[in-house]
Amino acid sequence: MQKLSLRDRIKEARVSASDSFRGGKLMSSIFRPGSPFRKGYVDSPRNRSYVVMNNVLYHLHPVKVKRHGVRLSYTLCLGGLSFFLFIVLTITGIWLMFYFRPTELAYVDIQTLQTSIAFGSLVRNMHRWGAHLMVLVVFLHMSRVFYHGAYKAPREFNWVIGVILLLLTLLLSFTGYLLPWDQLAIWAVTVGGNMAGYTPVIGAQAKFGLFAGLEATTATLLRFYVLHVLFLPFIIVIFMAVHFWRVRKDGGISGPL
Amino acid sequence: MVDIPEHLLQRSAEARAKALGISVEQALAEMKGESDPTVISKEPEVKTIDETPAPAAETPAPAAETPAPAAETPAPAAETPAPAVKAEEKPAAKAPKADTPEEVDFAPEVKVTQRLLTVVKAKPIQKSVSEPVDKVNTWPHLMLPEFVSLMAMTAFLIFLSAILQAPLLEEANPNVTPNPAKAPWYFLGLQELLSYWDPQIAGVMIPLVLGVVLWMAFPYIDRNPETHPSKRKFAIMFYTFFLAGAGVLTIIGVLFRGPGWNWTYPWIDGIWFDDLLDWIHFE
User: Whole domain around residue A232: which residue ranges?
Assistant: First the structure.
């Protein structure tokens, strides 16, 4: 029996420790069969299927997708990035909620956040630029879908849901715009809210409902805050669920052209 | 091995007794390995099934893994290379195994039925309607690029947030109106339209009717089933005009409108859009 070098023995010990951990009860209780994190994962067609099928991802992705659809140049990953930006905005938004009160203290809270709280400025910037980016990415996603004719049968209704999602994204961005409670926020929202006042027949009521009064006040701030952090995210998640589900039910990615 | 509950043994013994025409006690004894199994020596019918997917075609599972039709007899036949009907010599070979209670053999007669039941021709049972699609596994061909792109997006967003400060002006004051007061950038195209037309048209009818209703109804209006751009030139043209129009109006609203909504040049008069305060410096 040949003598192993120290390096080989260390490697052997590492492999066996890794195997006993990855094959242990804890890891096999967390990861389902076929997971690459379990012991003995080999790259086989069966395991490739299991990675998706035995995973919560199966709610999002099928086991197989059309070959042309995985080309980056086909989708530019825009739909996925919209969803991902929504997740980033949810995480940073929840973090911001710890430091923000939707009252006349809102402005002071933002100042404190930027000056006295660790990473406060960075997280606020990420939330703001991420929101602008999401509006842009959702719009580009819609353009991509249009140019591919991907809204055609049987996907007509998913296009309708997509337009609703775009409107909800705009509303989320617009309601968030007021929250810093500075001159930029209040006057941008005043301009936007005054547009709602031009609605035929119910213009005055629409404007009053939006502002919770005749003009933008702290009552408006509270209203926009509740819409921004609770109501609109709730609604958009429901529509996203339907949107993703319909993508698969309508036959996966469209095309090829 | 697990112990088989007595009532289950009893039930299967009854079924077996009924099937073979022997007494229940005899069947029970056979199943426990206390007596030799009853052998039915009736010669099985060998028939060829063509296109009829009758239940008879369901040969035992192991057969499916060997492609040759000759191998469609159950697994033990694989030990004997010839696929012929020579199964009768088999039962004795396996019967001794059943002498321990753990290995109760419920169906010893299976051993005597290893023979060619059917030959199913290699034809699909159903005729496929759809064309085969070239597909790849989602893992890793889709999920890895997705992961990379969302990592890239995260890096880009953190980088952007590190170098660009989000604007924060003076505290909101309803008594001091800034000039100009601008909406968020995605509404600035509309605000620009408002300066041309009546607000009822530019502020409500265009966004509501054109932007929402027409937009949602688009797939129901455009009934052309073609997806290739060369076969849907009008739709492409329509969308591109919309895109260009919205883009031009938004850029004018963001960069070229100053106090009093008058035309300004950003390189002369500066940027009158506070969201861009930290982006571009001219002074």
Answer: 77-249
Best A195, A210, A225, A254 member to test B by mutation, with max B CBs in 10 Å, is: A195
Q: Is residue A164 situated within a structural domain?
A: yes
Contact A192 B184 (CB under 8 A): yes
Judge whether residue B58 has pLDDT over 50. Answer: no
Q: Is the pTM of this model over 0.90?
A: no
Question: Is cis: bond before B83, omega within 30 of 0?
Answer: no
B149 is a domain residue = no
In chain B, DSSP finds a helix count (H) and a strand count (E) of 10, 3
Residue A56 lies in a domain: no
Please judge whether A164 and B177 are an interchain contact, meaning their C-beta atoms are less than 8 angstroms apart: no
Residue linked to tokens 């070959």 = A67
Is the CB of B275 inside 8 Å of chain A's CB atoms? yes
Structure-derived torsion over alpha carbons of residues A17, A22, A23, A25, reported in degrees to the nearest 10: 110
The per-residue pLDDT for range B154-213, each reduced to its tens digit, is 999 999 999 988 999 999 999 999 888 888 999 898 889 888 888 878 877 888 888 789
Does residue A11 fall inside a structural domain? no
Does residue A45 sit within a domain? no
From A51's Cα to the closest Cα of chain B, the distance in A is: 7
How many CA atoms within 13 Å lie on the side-chain side of B39?
14
Number of domains in chain A: 1
Quick check: is B138 in a domain?
no
What value of ipTM does the predicted structure carry? 0.90
Contact list in B for residue A182 (CB cut-off 8 A) is 167-172
Q: Are residues B17 and B112 in the same domain?
A: yes
Domain that includes residue B233, residue range: 178-283
Query: Distances from the Cα of A101 to the Cαs of A61, A108, A221, B167, in angstroms?
Result: 39, 9, 10, 19
B72 within 8 A of B143, measured Cβ to Cβ: no
